[in-house]
Write a structure and sequence with these properties.
- The protein has 385 residues and is of the alpha/beta class.
- The protein has two domains: 200 residues, Alpha-Beta Complex (Quinone Oxidoreductase, Chain A, domain 1), CATH 3.90.180.10; 140 residues, 3-Layer(aba) Sandwich (Rossmann fold).
- 26% of the residues lie in helices and 26% in strands.
- The protein has eleven helices and 18 strands.
- Helix 8 links the parallel strand 14 and strand 15.
- It starts with 11 loop residues before the first strand and ends in an 8-residue tail after the last strand.
- It binds zinc ion (2 copies).
- One zinc ion binds next to loops.
- The site of one zinc ion has 5 residues, from loops.
- It comes from Nocardia neocaledoniensis.
- Its cofactor is Zn(2+).
- One of its GO terms (cellular component) is cytosol.
């Protein structure tokens, strides 16, 4: 990978959380090159810790390393590159990991979540649109994670990945809109288009699953059954809109438990975990004409099985969902408005606020299953709880 040309630009020294080739994660000093054409620099106020960061640190997903982790965040624009006319210094932004190029076939068709350049250049290459990185240290170039790399004091991102929001919104809380909320609420609204008075089950009550539950409540679903193995998460699910719960650790058969609540099967089941077992449970719990939505992302190379005859006869659908099929510039400001109007509860989903130096502990807590959404706050060395 070529390093970005730095001859005419002085880098900023920032602290960032780097995953190295040997699997070690360290907080260290990194050079950040100023934004090139079509890019902006953002001071990160908060970064959410998501399972997709864990997939990288565990090796379930392969991405180029060394890499600065983090793909969910919020902040304030500190510099803009040439040709950026919709953002200026001081703007409050939510970071998005689908910075649509605006030029490919799917972007033109109004589906930036499927942008061809994000899928073929930015995400797999760990680079920005010109195929280079803005991050480096004495050992050489360091990659971006999903074009964001928010576990850092500052980031340089494509301007289309920094979504301007109203400046009266709490900048820490809105960080989780960039992945969990856009994905979960988007899965309900954009991918599945859940209808009022429908029946919904959500498997997995982490950040994305809880966002699905809130989306289903806002869509007017009359039954919303939450499934998880952690009692605290199920209790929060009820607070956020679930009408009943299934403790998957306490029942012998999750599908049977779901069907005992809604015997005819569900109109929509969201798999917010993305394990083979949960995907198969989501399909098996559907009713006539139902749709299983795969929102949680499995490890690379896995395969699930289902009965295609039963699916066809029952007129059911299996829907893949990337980033809630979102249009970030349309959906993210709207989600911020809904939070400000009290319709979306983000604060309850944030279980911890930690300094950047605790990134490794935050990832461990998420892996252990007892954390909800944790925020890393790069601007604060110590945080009173
Ligand atoms: Zn995520
Ligand atoms: Zn595109």
């Amino acid at each position: 990978m070529p390093a970005h040309d730095t001859t005419n630009s002085k880098p900023t020294l920032i602290r960032a959380v780097v995953l190295d080739d040997d699997g070690k994660i360290t907080l260290r000093d990194v050079d950040l090159t100023p934004p090139g054409p079509g890019e902006v620099q953002v001071r990160v106020v908060a970064a959410g810790v998501c399972h997709s960061d864990l997939h990288v640190t565990s090796g379930a997903w392969q991405v180029p390393q060394p890499v600065v982790l983090g793909h969910e965040g919020s902040g304030i624009v500190t510099a803009v590159g040439d040709g950026v006319d919709d953002l200026e210094v001081g703007d409050h932004v939510v970071l998005s990991w689908v910075p649509g190029c605006g030029h490919c076939r799917t972007c033109h068709a109004g589906r930036p979540a499927q942008c061809a350049f994000v899928a073929t250049v930015v995400a797999p290459g760990g680079v920005l649109y010109d195929g280079t990185t803005r991050l480096s240290d004495a050992t050489g170039p360091i990659h971006h994670y999903l074009g964001v790399s928010s576990f850092a004091e500052e980031v340089v991102v494509p301007a289309s990945g920094a979504i301007k929001i109203r400046d009266d919104a709490p900048l820490e809380d809105v960080a989780i809109i960039g992945c969990a909320i856009a994905t979960g609420v988007g899965a309900v609204r954009n991918t599945a288009a859940v209808r009022p008075e429908s029946t919904v089950a959500v498997i997995g009550c982490g950040g994305v699953g809880l966002a699905c539950i809130q989306g289903a409540r806002l869509a007017g679903a009359t039954r919303i059954v939450a499934v998880d193995v952690v009692t605290d998460k199920l209790e929060l699910a009820v607070t956020l809109g679930a009408t009943e719960t299934v403790d998957a650790a306490a029942v012998p058969d999750v599908v049977a438990a779901l069907r005992s609540a809604v015997p005819e099967g569900y109109d929509y089941v969201f798999d917010a975990i993305g394990k083979i077992r949960t995907t198969e449970q989501a399909i098996a719990a559907l009713g006539l004409g139902g749709a299983a939505v795969i929102v949680g992302l499995p490890a690379q190379g896995e395969s699930a099985t289902f009965d295609p005859l039963a699916l066809a006869e029952a007129d059911q659908r299996i829907l893949g969902c990337n980033y809630g099929s979102s249009i970030p510039h349309r959906d993210i400001p709207e989600l911020v408005d809904e939070m400000m109007a009290g319709r979306l509860d983000l604060a309850s989903m944030i279980s911890a606020r930690r300094p950047l130096s605790e990134a490794v502990d935050a990832l461990a807590d998420l892996a252990a299953g007892h954390a909800l959404r944790q925020l890393l706050l790069p601007g604060r060395d110590t945080i009173e709880s």
